[in-house]
Amino acid sequence: MMRLLYPLIALLCVILLSPAAHGADELSPLRLRFCVEETEYPPFNYFIRQDGIKTSTLSGYDIDLLERTFKPIGIDYEVQALPWLRCLKDVQNGSIDAAMSASLNRQRATDYIPSIAYYYLTPSYFYLKAELDPQFHINDINQLADFGTVCGIKGFNYDNFGWRKETPISEINSLQHLPEMLLKHRCKFFLARKEILAGSLALTLSGVLPKTLTSKVSPNTQQEPFYMLISKRSANKDLIAREFNRQVQAMRDSHQLEALYQFHIQKLTHGDDKGSDSL
Q1: I need a surface site. Which of 65, 106, 203, 233 has the fewest CB within 10 A?
Q2: CATH 3.40.190.10 spans which residues of the chain?
Q3: Distance (Å, whole) CA 242 – CA 191
Q4: Which CATH class for the 31-120+224-271 domain?
Q5: What is the CA radius of gyration of the chain?
Q6: Which CATH superfamily is domain 123-217 in?
Q7: Mind giving me the DSSP string for 36-97?
């Protein structure tokens, strides 16, 4: 009799100690993790200002799009603002599920799973109007290096500008400081996506500085697509890609993506507190 009971006792122990018996799903509910650039990338992600003071609450096109994707289907998530290189590294190693607002190059296409493109920006270069002849013209963006120091943001991808890796570029940490680098004559030019710089100036700077700047579209380029980069090591990579791509396509078909972009542009440029969270 005891020999018959031993297997039954062993089986009961396995069942009782299994994760299902203890409600593992309830103890460890699905919670996705996303990251964005901590120095802000308006209108796509930025910190809300209250009475001109920067808060720790994120807002923007990316934030709203994540909410519209995952909240209706009951999936919990969080968004962290991190230095961009760390954001990408954490996604690559799987500690974060995906990064928002990323351009694509060959290496990133290998290291991550890109979503479908969900917005497009204009690769441009900027300089002070008074510094160069009004007829200043180049045929290749790399020619800028022949006229002076070219600045960009550390960790940003400028492949889609036509910028070659062997061409020298001076890297700084914050997009908002690029115009200041021109005024201090530490840069002759800087590279930036036109729409992002406009949002950054509206969010953090006075309206006087932009009048001293001029910009031109990078030669021989088209508008640059931006993606969510999903970790290949995420246990939820298929879910994220499926639901995000589905939502982006549905909002594009109904013209809601453009409406969402325009809402945040208006919020930044005309809001009383430069990015309050009221509709």
Answers
A1: 106
A2: 31-120+224-271, 123-217
A3: 33
A4: alpha beta
A5: 23
A6: Periplasmic binding protein-like II (3.40.190.10)
A7: EETT-BTTTBEEEEETTEEEEEEESHHHHHHHHHHTTTT-EEEEEEE-HHHHHHHHHHTSSS
Residue 11 DSSP class = H
Mind listing the pLDDT tens digit for each residue in 31-65? 999 999 998 899 999 999 888 788 999 999 999 99
Burial 119-133 (b: 16+ CB within 10 A, else e): bebbbbbbbbeeeee
Q: Mean pLDDT check: name the lowest of 74-78, 95-99, 139-143, 207-211.
A: 207-211
pLDDT digits (tens, 9 = 90+) for 90-116: 999 999 999 999 999 999 999 999 999
3-state secondary structure (DSSP) of residue 13: helix
63/176 Cα distance (integer angstroms): 20
Run of H or E including 238? helix 237-253
Q: What is the pLDDT of residues 196-219, one digit of tens each?
A: 887 887 776 555 556 788 999 999
Return the exposure string of 75-90: e unless at least 16 CB atoms fall within 10 Å of the residue's CB, then b.
Answer: bebebebbebeebbbb
Tell me phi and psi for residue 261, to 5 degrees: -60, -50
